[in-house]
Amino acid sequence: xQTIHQWPATLVQPVGSPLSLECTVEGTSNPxxxxxxxxxxxxxxxxxYSVGIGQISSEVPQNLSASRPQxxxxxxxxxxxxxxxxxFYLCAYRAPGSQPQHFGDGTRLSIL
Amino acid sequence: xxxxxxxxxxFNVPEGATVAFNCTYSNSASQSFFWYRQDCRKxxxxxMSVYSSGNEDGRFTAQLNRASQYxxxxxxxxxxxxxATYLCVVNGKLGGTSYGKLTFGQGTILTVHP
Lengths: 112, 114
Prior knowledge:
heterodimer; B: five-stranded antiparallel sheet
């Protein structure tokens, strides 16, 4: 069966510190992968998506970057966090030939 | 105009009630439609896909009207556990390729009370 793992579940970081969130998918090959952010009380905003290893598309200009070093691994990074980077970050995958996306448990990021 | 628009609610209904949510989308080239459910401080979970002919899954019925670019979700015999935010989701399309990108509505909040 297909599963998606995302960690950590919660993170508190000071302004200016680096960030690395990791997401892995099991049970499928060559998935499309996505990073979303959900600010408090707001909808999901697509940040990045990837259709293959090393292929990253950015949806909005921001302080974040993404990488896909392996087929089923997706990483969200920042060199220096801003207060505005606080939010609920969600990784999702779409299996080949399938339409719906399935989400990881999310990471709640607080910047102090 | 937003790509996907929903009535944010909140909808407060008693147990056993029937409640309907509506959603409109702006991209006439959209081909896939879904309803997701999101519990407080949790990730969205797929509730059901929406097919052109309409589809039902237990107490839940989804309808699609392509001409009006309108999607609906009907919940019958509401349970306390149905309390959540319901997200209308449409696949995006850029040129001839969608890359599976989805556009999420802001969500409709449902509270079912005893």
